[in-house]
Amino acid sequence: MLDIAIVETSKSRRRLPNQRWQIYPQNIEFAQKLAVENNVSPIVSQLLINRGIETPEAAQTFLNPESLILPSPLEEFPDLATSVELLQEAIASEEKIAICGDYDADGMTSTALLLRSLRALGAKVNYAIPSRMHDGYGINKRIVEEFYSEGVRLILTVDNGISAVEPIARARELGLKVIVTDHHDIPQKLPPANAILNPKLIAESSPYRGVAGVGVAYILAVSLAQQLGETKGLIQPMLALFTLGTIADLAPLIGVNRRWVKRGLQLLPKSNLPGIQALIQIAGVQARGEGQGDKGIRGQGEEGSNLKSKIRLEKFATEEPAQSWGFPPCATGVGNPPYNFSQNPKSLKPEDIGFRLGPRINAIGRIGDPQTVIELLTTDDMGIALERAMQCESVNQQRQQMCEQIEQEAIAYVETEFITSLQEDRVLVVVQPNWHHGVIGIVASRLVERYGVPVFIGTYEDEEHIRGSARGIPEFNVFEALEACHDLLGKFGGHKAAGGFSLPAPNLSALRSRLIEFANECLEPQHLKPLLKIDTQVNFNEINHQLYQQLNALHPCGIDNPDPAFWTPNVQVIEQQIVGKGHIKLTLAQTIDHQQYQIKAIAWRWRDYFPLPSRVDVAYKLRENHFNGNTSIEMELIGVRLPTQSHLFVAAPSKPITTTFEYKQRHYTCGIYRQGSLPELRIKNPEGKVLAMQPGHTIGLLGNSRDDAQKVDVCQPQYDSIIQAALKALSVLSPES
């Protein structure tokens, strides 16, 4: 009988999420330094390091985005002065202006933002948004010629146009002036517009580099309003629309986006736009207090200039007087950090937009009429706003039902046709008739989450044509894959993570074969698991309201500034039950120094994994739960795996336990040995080099002998993956073996 207890043997090795965990390397010394200098927890300072913070000064700017020194947009965007002049001339001469937007949340909020601001500034302006089903993306010749026939003299594109060479060339032939505002990647040939505003054309180091289409529209509208001396009453409504569009479009929440979105989230609950209030009311969003980092330091260095034009922007008016923003004066006492963690006025969070408000807008663009959203966001009549918000709600419910039905049909099709070849194919190509093109991209994302492979999903427009969407995984470039199949496709486009395409139906078989070939060239078997990036290890006794308040200093979280993800090893599942539509509600416990700490948790849509094993490593995000006047900190589980490190075994073995396993087509031996009084996992490769690690340690040894071994961080993916493979091989050994 071995004096080692291997937890969760064959009886309990049930299905668990198919994930690969990537834990950031821990920089304990620098994290401690940042913690002291910024008066935050070492946990928070490690999160800052994980987000690319390399100096204490950069940490202070991140925690207090109001201290960011912003250059004048005129200095950053070469055509901004020209754009402002063109609009100013059109307003003065009462020329008709037409906006061509896009049918996603970014395009519709951009269109509404410019409509509201231009009308308020006296412009004669109208708009058009192409039909997703009939026109496809972006401005086209038909729209240009309709604008011309209506007497339009200036076209303004928003969230599109950077690739529209032919339509814009046609507009210029007709004598129209064109301003392109867009944020998509720059093509080899630019359109012949009078002015082009695109953050991809400015320096990568610019704080404006990451703005979405609505961010470009915001910069243009604010610059024009300031030039005309008419900023009063305009900035807050525009900032609300900027915030809504930026988050809904998944723009990176860094640089100026972080600064302006943080302000906007505080403004949204008390926005004077009827459409925003109606949307918040219909969606049931509740504003919450949070420990924000901006206690009133206003931006410095936002002076304008008269570069390249006679325009003189005294200050880029991203805000009205400080008190109207609800920011009290900042404490300036010696030693005070430029932020604190007290309760500020109630604010929304990015997830309120990303999961509640944004989908109701996007649903219209997917299966409804974009005019509904434009009217919602431009009306000053609360009655009309509520009617349009109700329409958004109804269409969103239809969209949800469509997604659910198509997802279930797609899963059934995959499980029948492709499940046995999935690991070999390394890509899913799923095409069926009678699916709605407007929602199949959402289904593609859900299939990626479920199967861990790139997904190309399509539906028949008619017997001869297929239209589809694609979603990728980190190691797979969707746009490059589409380019590799260009001769089989009609139109296609996209970027690394997502794309759209069309093709003649007879080419489907060849497309599937080509994509399988492409996937096998760039993907290894270990890539075919959803990647879970985890910031740092936290023990249950460290989770409290003080830590949660400090985490709020990192908000707003989103793209390029993800919600903090933590993990805790070897926790005990005390209670678990299915609630709602397939969610698992749990009570988890961790014992530290003979004291047990418990915490509640929720695992969304995890019915397939119920019941969870009694002992697991958990990955999670922290959430506040407000119930019956009480506030508690709870977990939202994002990952779970069988216990690792010390938690596969509870004592050092009297004699080594060894086995062999295969990893990346190479044979290894591994075993649990006694090192002093502690157990130690050792893994030997075919060349005789050994990786050794002890339970609970993040640093291991790698070398041919213990004397010449080098220290390595075993949380790094290349070590963690092989450790997981070794532990899996050892876990098949029962205590009686």
TrEMBL record:
InterPro entries: DDH_dom, DHH_sf, DHHA1_dom, RecJ_OB, SSDNA_exonuclease_RecJ. Belongs to the RecJ family. The keyword Nuclease applies. Residues 96-246 form the DDH domain. Residues 426-520 form the DHHA1 domain. This is Single-stranded-DNA-specific exonuclease RecJ. The keyword Acetylation does not apply. SUPFAM superfamilies: DHH phosphoesterases. The lineage of its organism: Bacteria, Bacillati, Cyanobacteriota, Cyanophyceae, Nostocales. Keywords: Exonuclease, Hydrolase, Nuclease. Pfam families: DHH, DHHA1, RecJ_OB. Residues 534-637 form the RecJ OB domain. GO terms for molecular function: exonuclease activity; nucleic acid binding. It comes from Mojavia pulchra JT2-VF2.
